[in-house]
Amino acid sequence: MNNKTYLIIGGTGGIGQAMVKQLVQESAADQTDGASAKRHSTQVFATYHRSEPNFEAENLHWIPMNISDEDSIQKAADTIKQTMGHVDWVINCVGLLHTKTAQPEKALRQIETEFFLQNMQINALASLLIAKHIKPLLAKAERSAEHPAIFATISARVGSITDNQLGGWYSYRMSKAALNMGMKNLSIEWGRSLKEVCVVVMQPGTVNTQLSAPFQGNVAEGHLFSPAYSAECLLEVLSGMKAAQSGSFVDWAGESIPW
């Protein structure tokens, strides 16, 4: 995982922040005294929405991004272009399940247009807009069939139509299913126009973050992951991905999830 340029979308969230810290720590561990040429070889770009975090590192670059605003996404991509000129891995960790005023719907009568569209905007559309503006940077990455560039998005098992046995959570389920279809489409298009890029949708497990906090009471003992553990697992799975696996929907252990 050395000598790459990473972009973590949502670097202030639970999983995103854990990924940022792990990538920075790994790159620091790989450095050797006097190896100045390698000292800056791994670069980590991470986005924040409102306020820049106080976590700093020599090879960490915080950039603002509002994933609901296409202009903001484009500006972030332009910043990376001016700084590095390419990106090797992109991981979108941003997701919406609930807000201060809205919870996942348990029944049809609870559907509200604004909350539904907000789910679609953040959970489904954002990854497509990120891909749209990041494609030129991925195109300049050094890559091969065995070591492809990566475009990964955090999804959810509840976005699987086949796996849906409980119903409910209309907006979240539908937006994640839409995300999955969008990424599948993207993998097919880039399979023709942007070779050796692996587009993958990932389920991180149930993670102890603000997103899952209201619903952790239903999680079986031992099945609530720390952000650090989930991030470690996801990065490990991605490190083994081949270009031929583009279009995959996998969990934190690398196991396939039915669409």
UniProtKB/TrEMBL annotation:
<dbReference type="GO" id="GO:0016491">
    <property type="term" value="F:oxidoreductase activity"/>
</dbReference>
<protein>
    <submittedName>
        <fullName>NAD(P)-dependent dehydrogenase, short-chain alcohol dehydrogenase family</fullName>
    </submittedName>
</protein>
<dbReference type="Pfam" id="PF00106">
    <property type="entry name" value="adh_short"/>
</dbReference>
<dbReference type="GO" id="GO:0005737">
    <property type="term" value="C:cytoplasm"/>
</dbReference>
<dbReference type="InterPro" id="IPR036291">
    <property type="entry name" value="NAD(P)-bd_dom_sf"/>
</dbReference>
<dbReference type="InterPro" id="IPR002347">
    <property type="entry name" value="SDR_fam"/>
</dbReference>
<dbReference type="InterPro" id="IPR051468">
    <property type="entry name" value="Fungal_SecMetab_SDRs"/>
</dbReference>
